[in-house]
C-alpha cells in the first residue's frame, strides 16, 4: 500500500532547485564586511552555546568521575599500588571499559617509573590524552550524496530515543539550511507515527507516513521517491525496534534497505544506530545485534545527561570501532549535538583540572 504524503513545509522549500555551479564572484563591499563580522559573532556565540550544552549535559559524569579524580590527584599522592587501585575503581565506575582501563594503568606505570608523568596536573593531562586517543579516529561528518537526496536509515531498539533523535536531527539539518523529509517507517507503533507527525510540523519538514501495520519498506520507498521529486537534501527514515523479535525485525530492515537501493543504488548513504547511554555495556550488545545485518556507519548516543557513566562513549567506540556522530545531552531540541571528542573530554575533566593545579 502506498504511503500517504503529509507535508508541513512551504512549497518554496520543497521545490528549491539544486545547483552545482558556485555563485558568481562579486566585489566585497563595506556592507559585506559588516555582515561577515556579524556572522563571525553569531558563529562564536553558537560555539559558546555548544560547549555550554555539552558541559551541562555531562554534569553527572563530571561530578562522579571528576570529584573522585580530584580526591586522588589533587593531593599529589604518590602513584603506588594503592593509588592505582583507586584510580582503576574510578575509571571502571565511569564505564570506560575494563580493557581500556587496564591499558591506561599499564601505560601509567611505565611512564611514572620513567619519570614522564608526575602526580598532579601532569597525571591529569596523561589521563585526558589517553582517553582522547581512543576517539582520535572519530569521523563526525556524514557521507553526503552529491547527486540527489542523502538517505539516512535510523535504527535502534524501542526506548533508546530513536524517534525523538530523528526529530532533533531534522531540526539540526533544517537549521543548517537543508531541506528534510522524514519517513515514519516504524509502522508497528502508532504512537511513533503520531509523534513524528507532530515533530515534523514543529520542525517544518516533510513527512511520509502510512497507517499502523503498513509495509515499512513501502513507506521508505515512497519517501525516497518523494525526496527525489521535491529536490530534498536529506531523508531520515525511522524503523521498528522490536529487538525481542529479532529475526523478524532483521528481515524487515533488510527489506527496507533493498527497496531503497532499487531507487538509489548507493543508498542508504548512512545507517545511524541510536543507543541509550544509560544502558551501559548492554548498549554494546545491542549494537552487535544490529551490526550482524545492518551496515551501521555511525552512532547516536542518547541520554548522556542522565548517567554518571559517560565513559561508555569510549567503551563503545573502542569495542565497535564506529564513529560517534551525535550525542544527546538533554531533552531540548538543540540538545542533540555533533560529537566533538575534544569538547567531550574537556567537559568531563575541566572542573577537575582547575582544582588539580
Describe it for me?
The protein is of the alpha/beta class and 357 residues long. The protein has two domains: 59-137 and 351-356, Four Helix Bundle (Hemerythrin (Met), subunit A) (Up-down Bundle); 150-338, Rossmann fold, CATH 3.40.50.300. The protein contains 13 helices and nine strands. Strand 3, helix 8 (190-203) and strand 4 form a beta-alpha-beta unit. Helix 6 packs antiparallel against helix 13 and helix 11 runs parallel beside helix 12. The radius of gyration is 23 Å and the shape is elongated. Residues 1-33, 39-47 and 352-357 have low confidence and may be disordered.
Which CATH architecture of the largest domain would you pick? Answer: 3-Layer(aba) Sandwich
Class computed from helices, strands and strand pairing: alpha/beta
Termini separation: 65 Å
Pick out the low-confidence regions.
1-33, 39-47, 352-357
Overall geometry: elongated
Q: Would you tell me which CATH topology of the largest domain applies?
A: Rossmann fold
Please give the count of helices.
13
Helical proportion?
40-55%
Q: What is the CA-atom radius of gyration, in angstroms? A: 23 Å
Major sheet strand order: 1-4-3-5-2-6-7-8-9
Number of strands: 9
Beta strand %: 5-15%
Order of helices and strands: EHHHHHHEHEHEHEHEHEHEEH
Look at the structure and give the CATH class of the largest domain: Alpha Beta
According to CATH, the homologous superfamily of the largest domain is P-loop containing nucleotide triphosphate hydrolases
What's the rounded overall pLDDT mean? Answer: 81
For the biggest sheet, the summary is: 9 strands, mixed
Amino acid at each position: 500500500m502506498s504511503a500517504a504524503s503529509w507535508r508541513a513545509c512551504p512549497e518554496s522549500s520543497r521545490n528549491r532547485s539544486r545547483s552545482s555551479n558556485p555563485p558568481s564572484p562579486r566585489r566585497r563591499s563595506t556592507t559585506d564586511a559588516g555582515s561577515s563580522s556579524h556572522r563571525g559573532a553569531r558563529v562564536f556565540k553558537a560555539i559558546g552555546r555548544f560547549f555550554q550544552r555539552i558541559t551541562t549535559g555531562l554534569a553527572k559524569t563530571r561530578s562522579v568521575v571528576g570529584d573522585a579524580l580530584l580526591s586522588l590527584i589533587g593531593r599529589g599522592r604518590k602513584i603506588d599500588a594503592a593509588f592505582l587501585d583507586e584510580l582503576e575503581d574510578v575509571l571502571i565506575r565511569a564505564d570506560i571499559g575494563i580493557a581500556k582501563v587496564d591499558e591506561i594503568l599499564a601505560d601509567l606505570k611505565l611512564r611514572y617509573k620513567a619519570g614522564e608523568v608526575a602526580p598532579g596536573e601532569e597525571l591529569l593531562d596523561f589521563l585526558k590524552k589517553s582517553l582522547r586517543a581512543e576517539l582520535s579516529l572519530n569521523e563526525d561528518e556524514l557521507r553526503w550524496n552529491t547527486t540527489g537526496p542523502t538517505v539516512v536509515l535510523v535504527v535502534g531498539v524501542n526506548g533508546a530515543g530513536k524517534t525523538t533523535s530523528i526529530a532533533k536531527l531534522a531540526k539540526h539539518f533544517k537549521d543548517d539550511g537543508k531541506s528534510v523529509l522524514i519517513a515514519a517507517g516504524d509502522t508497528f507503533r502508532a504512537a511513533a507515527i503520531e509523534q513524528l507527525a507532530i515533530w515534523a510540523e514543529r520542525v517544518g519538514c516533510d513527512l511520509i507516513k502510512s497507517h499502523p501495520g503498513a509495509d515499512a519498506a513501502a513507506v521508505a520507498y515512497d519517501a525516497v521517491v518523494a525526496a527525489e521529486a521535491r529536490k530534498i537534501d536529506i531523508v531520515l527514515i525511522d524503523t521498528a525496534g522490536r529487538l525481542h523479535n529479532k529475526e523478524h525485525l532483521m528481515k524487515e530492515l533488510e527489506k527496507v534497505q533493498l527497496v531503497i537501493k532499487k531507487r538509489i543504488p548507493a543508498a542508504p548513504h548512512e545507517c545511524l544506530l541510536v543507543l541509550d547511554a544509560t544502558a551501559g555495556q548492554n548498549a554494546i550488545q545491542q549494537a552487535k545485534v544490529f551490526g550482524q545485518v545492518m551496515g551501521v556507519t555511525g552512532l547516536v548516543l542518547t541520554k548522556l545527561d542522565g548517567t554518571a557513566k559517560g565513559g561508555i562513549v569510549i567503551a563503545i567506540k573502542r569495542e565497535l570501532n564506529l564513529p560517534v556522530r551525535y550525542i544527546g545531552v538533554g531533552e531540548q531540541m538543540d540538545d542533540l549535538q555533533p560529537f566533538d571528542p575534544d569538547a567531550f573530554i574537556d567537559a568531563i575533566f575541566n572542573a577537575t583540572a582547575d582544582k588539580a593545579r
